[in-house]
Design a protein that fits this description.
By secondary structure, the chain is mainly alpha-helical. It has 3 helices and no strands.
Length: 86
């Protein structure tokens, strides 16, 4: 149980890093970005535990979590993008 709480806290940090890596305007606020970071971290943790793709701890897992959050943030921005005004 404690492992998932740590994943949640690290997910908040990962959400901020993902926002820094994704250029352009964000269609969501800091709360949406943090939630996407948490979701990316949870997905990366689940996949790495089930399929053995990443180690359970360490920098490789952290990078995988950031990658998952970036992908989720890009998908979110593509779906909920605000129309640009000229």
């Amino acid at each position: 149980m404690m492992h998932w709480i740590i994943v949640f806290i690290i997910g908040l940090i990962i959400g901020v890093l993902a926002k820094l890596l994704v250029p352009g305007p964000d269609s969501g606020g800091i709360i949406v970005t943090a939630l996407l970071g948490i979701a990316g971290s949870l997905i990366a943790t689940y996949v790495s535990e089930r399929w053995g793709l990443l180690p359970l701890t360490g920098w490789k897992h952290f990078v995988g979590s950031v990658g998952g959050a970036v992908i989720l943030l890009l998908i979110y921005n593509a779906i909920f993008a605000r129309p640009r005004r000229l």
